[in-house]
Amino acid sequence: MKVGITMSSLLAVLLFGATGCNVKVDKSGDGDNVKIATPFGGIAVKKDQTSAADLGLPGKNLYRQLSQRVMDAIASLRLE
Questions:
Q1: pLDDT digits (tens, 9 = 90+) for 15-57
Q2: β-strands 41-45, 31-38: how paired?
Q3: Residue of 36, 41, 40, 35 whose CA lies nearest to 13
Q4: Where in the chain are the domains?
């Protein structure tokens, strides 16, 4: 009995999730804009959005800079 209820609940959730998904792609001259919507949430990526670098925020190189500083600190601890 419990197995039947569990399986029917799982099937209902899967059907609800699969039928509620929506993907839109807008191809324009300057790039692609993509919007993905599900019953549980969504995400949109636009080519013309402001990037983190445009706002003065650290970009992709932040990890490299921090990891290099950590490695330098470890190296200086070993030398002393």
A1: 776 677 888 888 877 667 888 887 778 888 877 777 767 777 7
A2: antiparallel
A3: 40
A4: 21-79
